[in-house]
Specification:
single chain; four-stranded mixed β-sheet; alpha+beta; 5 helices
């Protein structure tokens, strides 16, 4: 009897946890207003700041310090640029060397957001803030680098394991971050992009 009651309480808790997420649009829908969201298709007006597609055999993430060739382009301390994956490092190399990138920074810009699970306000540091030339214009783009699988809500029909609950929490937290980032960009006249392996070329 105790076991059945425990299972019932867990089921109620999971349903309560998921309800607000599945009643809202997905991240893809949230960020689908062109050209704000990039899912692999490159808007022509931004083509000159994107990277050519390449194939890599080693896709394992790793961490290290990046030493820019053009430190004056970096807004922040160029001696303290940290990458946490091969994807981020490739972006850094691209921003550093691309002549259309006027200025860039990595995790130097903080955005407050409300975590939907603990109700508290936290700071979100998007991966990159880039100022670039697009034709005769100068544009600012706020960029988050994420695997495409994180843009979709977890399958609610999956077994409710610890791994599943973690994915639910991460999905909700990411959505809250990106909503806040989009609002800031709308206010400042910037563009917000989520770059995936399709954008970067892995």
């Amino acid at each position: 009897r105790i076991s059945l009651i425990s299972l019932f309480l867990v089921a109620v808790m999971i349903s309560t946890l998921l309800a607000p997420l599945y009643s809202l649009p997905s991240s893809s829908e949230l960020l689908s207003e062109e050209p704000r969201y990039n899912s692999g298709e490159i808007p022509m007006e931004l083509y000159n700041i994107y990277m050519a597609k390449r194939n890599y055999s080693n896709k394992m993430p790793y961490r290290g310090k990046f030493n820019p060739t053009n430190p004056k382009k970096y807004k922040g301390n160029p001696r303290n640029i940290v990458f946490r994956s091969m994807w981020e490092r490739r972006c850094m190399v691209h921003f550093d060397r691309n002549e259309n990138i006027i200025e860039w920074s990595s995790e130097e810009f903080a955005i407050p957001y409300k975590n939907p699970f603990d109700g508290k306000t936290h700071r979100y540091y998007p991966d990159f803030l880039v100022k670039c030339k697009i034709g005769p214009d100068i544009k600012t783009v706020l960029i988050e680098v994420k695997p495409s699988k994180y843009l979709k809500p977890p399958n609610r029909n999956r077994k409710k394991t610890k791994s599943y609950l973690y994915e639910v929490r991460e999905y909700g937290r990411n959505r809250a971050k990106w909503e806040a980032a989009k609002a800031v960009c709308d206010h400042k006249g910037w563009r917000f992009d989520v770059w995936t392996e399709h954008t970067i070329g892995f």
